[in-house]
Amino acid sequence: MQGYGLYSQEAEEATVGALFLEDGLIKDCTLRPEHFYLARLKRLMSLILQLDAKGKPVDVISVVEEAGQHNLESIGGSSYITQLAGSVPTVANFTFYQDTVLEYYQKRKAVEIAGRIQEHAQNGDIASTLRDGIHDLMQVEDHLGDDDLGEIMPALVELYGEAEMDLGEMTGIPSGFRNLDRLTGGFQESDLVIVGARPSVGKTAFALNMALNAADQEAALIFSLMSKKQLLKRMISCKGEISSIKMRNPKRYFNDGDWAHLSGVMGAFGEVNLHIFDQAGMDIQYIWSKVRKARRKYGEGKRILVVIDYLQLIAGDPRHQNRQAEISEISRKLKTMARDLNVAVIALSQLSRGVESRQDKRPMLSDLRESGQIEQDADVIAFLYRDDYYHKESDRKDTIEIILAKQRNGPIGTVRLAFMKEIGKFGDLPPGEFG
């Protein structure tokens, strides 16, 4: 080992040398020139990749020819290339060689980022220093070596074991609504669920209802720019069926019975696994770190529902040139978080004004703002529609339609729920009514 533990000349030379031994091995190589520490090996790897891109074989002659006389010395000359090609007896350990090179690259990047954090922490804004540092470290983590060979036997054994278990109709986290759960089987861990609606239709209330239902038996995390006290006030109103008007000023509107009821409802909140985060300007790294801590706290035995209110309010990477690119990255990372931490993520999303110009105001997939990447990443997309939102004389007052427009692993359709706006509570309609 050389360079104080920050690179291995032996591993770098063995990796490149092995590429000369077997035709086509370059296609199994996941390394790029920047992963190497030694300058001559960076240049040599670039030449090998150029040859492969042109469909040419990788051997000593082709590399020397590709380099040309002008650049040959910068890669050690033909004698060094010949020495590399003969230094590795077999390609059997190629995966070990390249994983070692990647590991040292990650060490160097981690040290570099740590130095930058230290410097900026002394002279700059600590919040942005930590945010940028965490973002950069996560980028390094994304490049971790992957030794997955795609073996299917372990998954087959696991699948057979699950087939022998009666999972019932509910395989995910229940929403608490009978007909919706019948369509979805509950919200599945590792799924990204997008809930879209126009402003003031009820998407926050809907999300809070589902979080409350999940927190009773499992665990729920809510990320919102609405203050923790505001959210708790709405959830207490919902859970205790207390009028939101009374909750605005209990001192004026509550009677003795109301105070006793409020005390009981607030006491019940101490028994649920509910966490609310209301930090201004939160970004995906902040959300990821809090969800990871919750996963460590509850272990794999507890299912976790993550609610984000709402998608477009998450701070993006300022290095992106437009908001659409930021939202696309946020969407991808939310899906990755759902999979990596094995949680169900419900992200609320604003809809474009295009829905207002149509005669039928029911939302469609194309109404999602920055819809392309969101539509691709989401496992489930649901829209909320209230007829009385647009038609004051509607005969469907106090009801709301949940339109499942996409479900990767199940049917789509529409479910109708009761919506008690004065307390922000959703519920199943009586049997026989449209649902």
TrEMBL record:
Keywords: ATP-binding, DNA replication, DNA-binding, Helicase, Hydrolase, Isomerase, Nucleotide-binding, Primosome. GO terms for molecular function: helicase activity. It catalyses: ATP + H2O = ADP + phosphate + H(+). It is an enzyme of class 5 (isomerase). Residues 166-433 form the SF4 helicase domain. Belongs to the helicase family. DnaB subfamily. The main replicative DNA helicase, it participates in initiation and elongation during chromosome replication. Travels ahead of the DNA replisome, separating dsDNA into templates for DNA synthesis. A processive ATP-dependent 5'-3' DNA helicase it has DNA-dependent ATPase activity. This is Replicative DNA helicase. It comes from Cytobacillus oceanisediminis.
